[in-house]
Amino acid sequence: MHKLDSARNKTDSIVNSFDVSLMSNAKWVKLLNLLSNLNLDGANATVKLVWDIDIRSFRLDKDLEFNFDYYASSMESMISGYPKGFYDYKEIEWLNILAPSETIGLINKSLDKVGKFCVKQTTDSIQILAYKNT
Question: Which is nearest to 46 in space by CA: 126, 134, 131?
Fold first, then answer.
């Protein structure tokens, strides 16, 4: 079996261990389009991948564009750490954004315009969950 196929099978096995999947590729694209159109340059974004214990930085700036940094089924060079390259959206367990309370409020209000999301929010952060166990 090819290494990539083996890695994808491992990811699928981890993803299937969650009780609920809350995001699809189309929903990720809508979310990234929304976030890239907001002025979030001062925000600190991180992600947790399902197969990794590290919390990685996530590039979230006004220069993100559909078919440039993110695609219909994956993203390129937006997540720090090793390995780098294309990541399938299904590999993201959650996205967290740390920012001033006004920015978090703007993000929260804007989310309703593109869909329903499972979020955990404080005054200075918002976490968008892709998976959860009940």
Answer: 126
